Structure formats: structure tokens, C-alpha cells
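Ticket #4471: structure export looks truncated?
Reporter: QA, pipeline team
Priority: medium

Steps to reproduce: submit the single chain below to the structure queue and open the exported record.
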Amino acid sequence: MASKIEPSGFTTETYDRLFKAIFGRENQQSKLWRLELYNALRGTNYKDPDALEINTIENVIYLTMRNDISFLVDSQMTLFEQQSTYNPNMPLRGFMYFSQLYQMHLTKTGKSLHHSTLVKIPYPKFIVFYNGNKETPDREYLKLSDAFENKEKDGDFEWTAELININPNHNKTLQKNCKPLYHYVRYVSRIKRNKKKGLPPEDAISEAVDWAIKKKLLNGFFKLQKEEVLAMSLTEFNAEEVTREFIEEGREQKALEAAENLLKLDKLTEEEIAQTIGLPLEQVLKLKEKITVLA
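Actual output as written to the record:
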């Protein structure tokens, strides 16, 4: 079915922008890559790239909760998201995404829930392409029920996110059947390789882009969009560093709070607290001085 394609939103997830630049744009090349990915995932052989209808949702919950690529074909609503960090909360995020997508679908099709007839909706499929450092199987199904604080024994409600590992040496058949995905994986792996070698961010990314151009990855996409790819990759690299620093700062703050509580209990020595919490002894001693002054 022919359909109107809407532009995809962006997030700050690492490599997320590039993923959407490849698979989520309106141009003919992106449509063909999107169709190739869909066929590789489902084992189908669709020929018309316009058979995929793009539906996007903007930021209505949190800044980082925009979706990547969602489309309707054969009465199935598929949502793609790329993640470089393992996130067990993806089923809940997907649940929130689809509530918005279904609302958009009902509005667009003029359907109402306030009637006695059953409203038919597309089947949901939430796929997360994962290329982070945590070791995961080729495919993993994350369940929303794992997040329930209290589980009813007879409960039958479930929602899943299908996590597909696209790191090298994972899901080789999928990557073989979808060349643009394979090229994307190779480029990201090149950046990771450069980072491990200790190259500065700009050099790590610049070398990877030049390498991708030399290898003619994505039919010359890297050559044609070199400046944009450099800007996207560097922005996402910096975002990853800021996020990591924020997480580390949060962990340190919790450690300091735990150390303060132990010091107030006065049951352990400063050395024992430092060893237990995992903080430098100097930090614990300074914290002890601060508590003593305030007391």
C-alpha cells in the first residue's frame, strides 16, 4: 500500500542518530534499506518500499523516550529502536511507545473505542537492535512482567521487547541478508576498535568514516554524507561520555550517603567503611571530619 512517510525523531542514544539516518529517512535509498531490513527480519520478499508506512512519535514523556522507526504493513505495527546500553526497561518503554502509536492510529483511521463493536488494531512488534558491550544471546525476549512489583499467580498480561544482538559474530544470517545493517555494524565496530586503541574521539570517528568511505560502505553514503556523519557520531560520542559521567556521579553520591550513614552508626572503623563501600580512605576521613564539625 502506498503511504505518506513522516520524518523520524532523534534521540541522544549512542549511534542512534546514524541508525535512523540510514533506515528512517524519506529518500528512496533509505526506503530501500528499510525494506531490506524488514524482509531480512521477517523472511519476506516485499518489493515495494512504499508498502512501509512510517509512524513517528515525538517527545511526550521524557527527552530520551522518542522512538526510532515504526511502520505498518500487513496489519503489523513494528517499532525499531537501537540501543548501545543494555536496558531491562525496554518492555515498559515499548508499552508507552505503542500506547501513543495506537492513539495516532485510531485518530488517523477514525476509529472510536466508545462503541459496542470490537476495534481491530495492528499486531505490535517491538524490536531493539543492541550493540553494547554486555554479552547477550543472539536474541532475547525481555518481559514487562519482570518489572511488576506484585505478580498475580493467575495473571496473563504480558508485553515483550525482542532484543536482537547486532554486534559482530551475532545474528550472522540477519546481517548477511541485510547488507545496510551489516555495513552499519562494521562502522560502529570500527569506532569501538579505535576507542580501545586509545584514539581521541575526533580521531576515532574520523578514521572510521575515512575507512567506511574507502570500503564503499552503504553505497557511498559515508562519502556523500561525510560531514553529517562526523557531526552525528561525535555528538553521540560526547553524549555517551556525559551520560557515563552522570551515572558515575550518581553512584559516587550514593556511596557517600552510605558511608555517612555507617559513620553515624559508629560501628565500623573508617578503614572498614572505605573497604565496604569501595571509597578511598581519604574521602571517608574527610566525610568523618565534616560530620564531626556539624555535630
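Status: closed, not a bug. The export was complete when the record was re-opened. Leaving a note from the reviewer for reference: The mean pLDDT is 82.
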